[in-house]
């Protein structure tokens, strides 16, 4: 949910909106949180002011992202619990070092770190080498990795299985929208879905299917599969929203090309 939208609502209204977004009834949420349905109803309608602990309990039960837990606390009149430092701040020095080590250590295979909006945070040399030929405006900061991947002037013309890869990325993005209720991600999805694609897009469930990226590169066809790494115990919004996608060769020929 966007910050502006959250600031326009009371804590009760935000809780109700998130509960409905999670497709839970008041009874279902109250049972999961081990509170009475009557008390939850009073909180949602503003007849009862939730304590700080109650706000955190309901936010945890609803599995809200850290950013939205802070917004819910603010709406209820409490200070945010989770910090939100810039990645280049001294407090996140260890995080920056860890990200850089993962990216550098993954060479000669591509790897990239992105934020919640899929904007490029950092990439290794192997990934940057794949961006040759991408239109300059797509590489202007902030660089959106999904836009670079699917835009006709980006990597789309070099992706052999564009229909399949496009469906995979859009599926992942839709799942992220369900989790975060982020309007900016929904707008990004609509933009990407409007890009031309002559290939059929198969129905893909990103939870069950490993989709290879087949990419033309210097006269060869690379076959890559990827893993996504996140920080396991984040207490900072910026850290919680970081993700590192690492690509691995799906066959020996791809490994040989990248190592060469």
UniProtKB/TrEMBL annotation:
Extent of the signal sequence: none
Domain of life: Bacteria
CDD domains given in the database record: HTH_XRE
HTH cro/C1-type domain location: 15-69
Pfam family membership, one: HTH_31
Name of the molecule in the record: Helix-turn-helix transcriptional regulator
Species per Swiss-Prot/TrEMBL record: Actinokineospora xionganensis
């Amino acid at each position: 949910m966007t910050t502006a939208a959250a600031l326009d609502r009371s804590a009760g209204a935000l809780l109700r909106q998130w509960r409905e977004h999670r497709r839970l009834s008041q009874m279902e949420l109250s049972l999961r949180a081990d509170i009475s349905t009557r008390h939850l109803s009073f909180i949602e309608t503003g007849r009862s002011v939730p304590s700080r602990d109650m706000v955190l309990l309901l936010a945890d039960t609803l599995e809200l992202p850290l950013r939205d837990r802070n917004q819910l606390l603010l709406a209820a009149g409490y200070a945010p619990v989770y910090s939100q430092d810039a990645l280049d701040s001294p407090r996140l020095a260890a995080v920056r070092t860890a990200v850089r080590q993962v990216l550098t250590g993954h060479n000669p295979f591509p790897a990239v770190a992105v934020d919640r909006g899929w904007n490029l945070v950092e990439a290794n040399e192997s990934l940057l080498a794949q961006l040759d030929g991408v239109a300059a405006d797509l590489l202007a900061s902030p660089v959106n990795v999904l836009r670079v991947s699917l835009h006709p002037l980006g990597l789309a013309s070099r992706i052999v299985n564009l229909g399949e890869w496009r469906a995979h990325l859009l599926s992942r993005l839709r799942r992220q929208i369900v989790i975060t209720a982020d309007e900016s991600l929904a707008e990004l999805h609509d933009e990407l879905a409007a890009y031309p694609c002559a290939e059929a897009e198969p129905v893909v469930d990103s939870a069950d299917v490993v989709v290879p990226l087949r990419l033309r590169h210097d006269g060869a066809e690379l076959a890559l599969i990827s893993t996504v790494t996140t920080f396991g115990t984040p207490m900072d919004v910026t850290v919680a929203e970081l993700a590192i996608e690492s690509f691995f060769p799906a066959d020996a020929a791809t490994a040989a090309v990248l190592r060469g």
